[in-house]
Design a protein that fits this description.
Blueprint (H helix, E strand, L loop, with lengths): L1 E3 L2 E11 L4 H15 L2 H4 L8 E6 L8 E10 L10 E5 L2 E9 L4 H12 L1 H4 L5 E6 L10 E7 L2
Antiparallel strand pairs: 1-6, 2-4, 2-5, 3-4, 3-7, 6-8, 7-8
């Protein structure tokens, strides 16, 4: 268990669902937009170059609708660029997982594992997130941290 503090994010978002592979398509398009529109260059007050993929505003659990935000951690939400969104997230207790291998497959496989353990993890369904840091671009040696909010 890890304690995560409150944090602020600026980025882009979409609403999706895990039904019928829709999330893979929608989130893939969101990543494409993030890089094709060079969103990182528009985000001011960045705390680091790490990219966060956040899953929040869950309708029910992982089977219902939810929002995905791809963005970066910032010091303040005072200046949110046009067409981007800013959100603050409450910290709390999180279970940390590490997806290792080729991306995005390694992340998708790790999520399959997490969903199988859904009940025993005692998930809160507030905001779960992935952190794409320096180790996330190493081909089959890539690593991405996944944090799941728990009770």
């Amino acid at each position: 268990m890890e304690q995560v503090g409150n944090f602020k994010i600026i980025g882009i978002e979409t609403e999706t669902t895990n039904e019928n592979g829709k999330s893979a398509e929608d989130i893939g398009k969101l990543w494409e937009q993030f890089y094709s529109e060079n969103i990182p260059s528009k985000i001011l007050n960045k705390k680091s170059d790490e990219v966060y993929s956040i899953y929040t505003d869950y309708e029910t659990d992982y089977k219902g609708k939810y929002k995905t935000i791809i963005g970066q951690k910032v010091d303040s939400l005072d200046k949110i660029p046009n067409r981007l969104i800013g959100r603050e997230f409450k910290g709390g207790k999180y279970q940390k997982f590490i997806a290792k291998g080729e991306m995005p497959n390694a992340v998708m496989e790790k999520w399959q594992e997490i969903w199988k353990k859904d009940k025993e993890l005692n998930r809160k369904y507030t905001a779960d997130f992935e952190i794409y840091g320096k180790k996330s671009q190493n081909g089959k040696n890539s690593e991405v941290e996944i944090y799941i909010a728990t009770e």
